[in-house]
Amino acid sequence: MTEFIYEVTDVPVSEGVTPWQTVGPFFHYALPYDDGPLVAGESREGVFTLHGYVYDGQGDPIPDSLVEIWQADESGDFVSSPGIFEAPPADGFRGFGRSATDTDGHYWFRTVKPAAVPTAEGAAQAPHIAMSMFARGMLRRVVTRVYFDDESAANESDPLLSSLDATESTTLVAKADAEGYRFDIRLQGADQTVFLDVAAH
Amino acid sequence: MTAQELDPPYLFADYTSTVLRSPGKALVMPPAGLSELTGPKFGSGDVRDTDADLTVHGSGEAIGERIIVHGTVRDSYGKPVRNSLVEVWQANAAGRYIHKLDQHPAPLDPNFVGAGRALTDDEGHYRFTTIKPGPYPWGNHHNAWRPAHIHFSLFGRAFTQRLVTQMYFPGDPLFFQDPIFNGVRDEAARKRMISHYDHAVTSPAWATGYRFDIVLGGAAQTPMEES
């Protein structure tokens, strides 16, 4: 049988980078999953809870945001087995975590402190975790880094922290608390979290 | 223009929720570090074959226009991004999400889950079978409607390449009044979010098809062991 084709139009291939769009309000049944916050297994040595609150420009908690982290292990290796959708073994580690904020704007992860990893040029950096936050009302994510307040010597010589003033660098340092470390994200205000431009690398 | 300038601004007042959710201070450029230049690796264990078909999770056929959505994921150098996770979610044919907070009085479809996952293959290609989503109203401004869209979440090879975007359909009459679509101020970049009707991928007597190619910005470091 003949195929009828009256006009042939090639499907053009997209050129240029695809832009960001908001994650919207309805991602909860698609992106978060029960084991999402479990970056490290429950009996791994040094395991702790990294947690905090996400606040909008009025200081109100954001109950519909999504926080993701990516980090090295205690040896500075980036590993993602057994896969991001599986809970790591009891003493295991998978590098990635995803946590939706609850009605109080609270997120949490179970993880370990990463070893210090260098810049691409080989300069030393203080131990830190890369973090993204997505939300309705944000046309693209914000990116930040989570440093640790018990690494003061390493923090003082870290290239990013030492390039910021004291008010700014404080926003990137998680504070030890009863559960592990607390790291809040503030989108606006005098104590706004420092957000990073990693797209231009 | 850099990738950054092609992306929508944080503050775009027409999209009213951005006012209190946009950073007030300029972004800081950190030194490129290994935490940002690496990212999770994916394998066949991360997704099941049925995860890429959003229409087969009920006891009957999903209601609506069955479509195949496919495309290639590349980096900004044109190289295919292989074995990388693509997550999608969307409203059903009536414009209703499964989400408990969606109050739009349109029917839910018990045979349509509205969420899927796939890995790109060795050519960076992905493919989903789904239902064409409907437009839906929202409260941003008087008589506001979202154009039909499918949400995409991509990991690429590195933290820098992470992308959350929305795929639109050609010829949608609702583009003119949508501040999310138009939040991308560069016209050429905005049009890259519109899929193309692709008769070549249609399945006779089964499904029509759309092509949505994706290009990820941001650098990635190729670790030594990958050579």
Describe the protein in words:
Chain A has two helices and nine strands; from the N terminus they run E-E-E-E-E-E-H-H-E-E-E. In chain A, strands 1, 2, 3, 4, 5, 6, 7, 8 and 9 form a nine-stranded mixed beta sheet that branches. Chain A has 201 residues and is mainly beta. Chain B has helices spanning 3-6, 34-37, 187-191, and strands at 66-75, 85-90, 115-119, 125-131, 136-138, 144-146, 149-154, 163-168, 196-197, 208-211, 214-216. In chain B, strands 1, 4, 9, 10 and 11 form a five-stranded mixed beta sheet that branches. Chains A and B meet through strand 5 and strand 6 of A and helix 1, helix 2, strand 2, strand 8 and helix 3 of B.
Short description:
The complex is a heterodimer of chains A (201) and B (227). By secondary structure, chain A is mostly beta strands.
**Level of helix content of chain A?**
under 10%
Q: How far apart are the termini of chain B?
A: 31 Å
State Rg of chain B. Answer: 18 Å
Shape of chain A: globular
Largest sheet of chain A: 9 strands, mixed
H-E string of chain A? EEEEEEHHEEE
- Based on secondary structure, the structural category of chain A is mainly beta
**Could you list the spans of chain B in which at least 5 consecutive residues all have pLDDT below 50?**
223-227
Order of helices and strands of chain B: HHEEEEEEEEHEEE
Low-confidence stretches of chain A: none
User: Helix fraction of chain B?
Assistant: under 10%
End-to-end distance of chain A, in Å? 54 Å
Separate helix tally of chain A: 2
